[in-house]
Structures are given as structure tokens and as C-alpha cells.
Amino acid sequence: MLRALRLAVRGRGLAAPNPMVGAVLVKNGQVVGEGWHRRHGGPHAEVEALAAAGRRARGATLFVTLEPCAHHGKTPPCTEALLAAGIARCVVATRDPHAIVNGRGIRRLRAAGVAVEVGLCAAEARDILGGYVLAHEAGRPRVTWKVAASLDGRIADSQGRSRWITGAEARARGHRMRAESDAIVVGANTARADDPRLTARTSARAGLATNQPLRVVCDTRLSLPHSLQLFGRALAAGTVVACGAAAPAARVRALESRGVRVWKLPLAAGRVSPLALARRLAADGRQEVLLEGGAALGGAWLRAGLVDRVALFVAPRVLGDGLAWISGAAWPLAGAPQGSIRTIERVGADALLIVDVGGK
Length: 360
What we know:
This protein is an alpha/beta fold. The protein contains eleven helices and 18 strands. The strands form four sheets. The protein has a nine-stranded mixed beta sheet with strand order 11-10-9-8-14-6-15-18-17, sandwiched between helices. The chain has a five-stranded mixed beta sheet with strand order 2-1-3-4-5. A hairpin with a 2-residue loop joins strand 12 and strand 13 (about 270). The model is unreliable at about 205-210 (pLDDT under 50).
């Protein structure tokens, strides 16, 4: 199962909105086939493993990170392929929370006489599938807030300059995070100040460089200038602007005429509601979301309990007066959101902390 989990993550950024899945077939103590879900619309992990195993699949045990599907989607049911191949046993890490599956695959296999066990490495599998699980159990994506800050917690100096706080290696890692996400969200202030493209520019793995996430900017009144790169011919079709219901209709039409999608959403505290946008993103099939925009936007999402992880790049430099990486939020020490450090690593001259947030 550990091997199946390692295979599953190879589909990160490529399989969505389908889940990342890995599968390993074992017979007489030997691996006879393995596979993973390489891309949306392509063969599922189980089918890839069966193809690799051929006739050796008969009587084998399948270790799979997610319950096999039992319905017709873009591909036929995996359960029927497994039964036709004659597998004897199926070890499943976790049930599929999608309403169209959720136990049906397990029941189908058991009804046909296959021995099915569920729960091996379940926590690890659910962690890999975090966005997929949240989308189907809570109706929202998994959210990672990416921050690049100085040693004293500044994301810009006293003049508002932020390029570049961290080094080239950290920025390259940030582009990989983009490529592994389904959407990037920024606020209007970040869009106006930085005029970003919000594209994933990386050659870390084949396929990632062309698998661009949805670009989302929150602009309550649609006040941003249309000269921004996000609204230009090259990027407009993959850009969404989230605004309030009272945004001027003429500005909506102007953006839509360029190919930009406009989502009118409820407001919270005078700005686009983080929860409403999170739910809209999940409904659009965006299960892994990267927040890149600003102290105010990130603070609002954190206050709403919607930030699941913080990816904090820390540069070994001190700026003194400047912009802190969170604003608009204040908690007493005893009631502050409590996280746990998942990993700490050096990235070039900088450090990267991945912190799981308690979601208060």
C-alpha cells in the first residue's frame, strides 16, 4: 500500500477533478502490475495495473488507495475490469466519498466473491486526497495559503516593494505549487500592485508546465483596470473575477467580452465571502486551492476557518517596518488558531515551513 500511495501522488495536478489513485497487484509475494491515474479522462489506476499484469492478475491481490469505481463515467467501471481479470482479494485504503461511489465499489466486489479489506493506510490516503475529500464531504476545496516573508514576518518593505524577498529556488518551488493546484486566488490589491500572470512556470515534471490552474481575483466592485495581464488575450479565458452582486453591469459585460468569467457572490464584511467563493470553486471542480493574495485576503480566509495549510517561505533578511503577512485579524493568545508543523526544509538560501492549521 505504501508503494500505491507513492504512485498516487504522481497524478498531482493532472488527474483533477478526479482523485489521485495508485494501485499495485501482488501475486505469490511478487508485484505483477502497478499503475496510477495519470490524467483526467485517462485510464484509472486499477486498469493500468491490470494492463501491466496481464494474465498474472488472476488470483492476485490488489492494493489500491481509493475504493474502485462501480459506475460508468469517462471510463468503464473499474470493478468490472477487476472481476473480469479474476482478482481474488482487494485491499482498499479508504472509501470514495463521492456520492456516486461511496461503498458501491466495495459492495460490488464482495457480492462477486472478492475478499475486500478497507482501512490500511487510510489516514495517509485521505491526506493525499485532502482536496477531493473536502470537496465531497464539506463542499469546499483544501486551501493552502502561500506566503513569502522576511525573517521578521514582512511581505513587503516600508515602500511596498516585495520583489524579491525570497530567492530563485523558493520562487521555483512556488511555481511548482501552482502547477499542483487547481486554482490560485488573489485579492484586488495584489492584482493592482503586482500585475501578476498567476501562471505555473515550471519544468519540474512533464505535463505540469502546461496544466495551468484557474486564476481567480477577488474584486468586489470590479474596479481593477482592464490593462492587467490577467485580462489580456493570452490569459483572460482562464481567469475568473469574483465580485459582489452590486458590481456594475457594464463592467461585468466588459470583462466577459474579453473572455473573463465573472462570478457574482455574496459579501462578508463588505468583501467577497471566502466561504461563498470556496463553495463556488468546489462546484467548479477546483479541489486544491492556493491563496497567494495579500495579508487582508489571507487573513479573511483564516478567520473564516478555510485555510487548511500555510506554506511559509522565510528569507534570512530583516526589513523592519513593512507589511506584515496577515492583517485584519487578532486573537488572544489562548484562543489563537493552533497549527502543527508538517515539514521544515531549506530551499536555496530560504526556509520553507508547511504548517497544518487547526481551522479556528
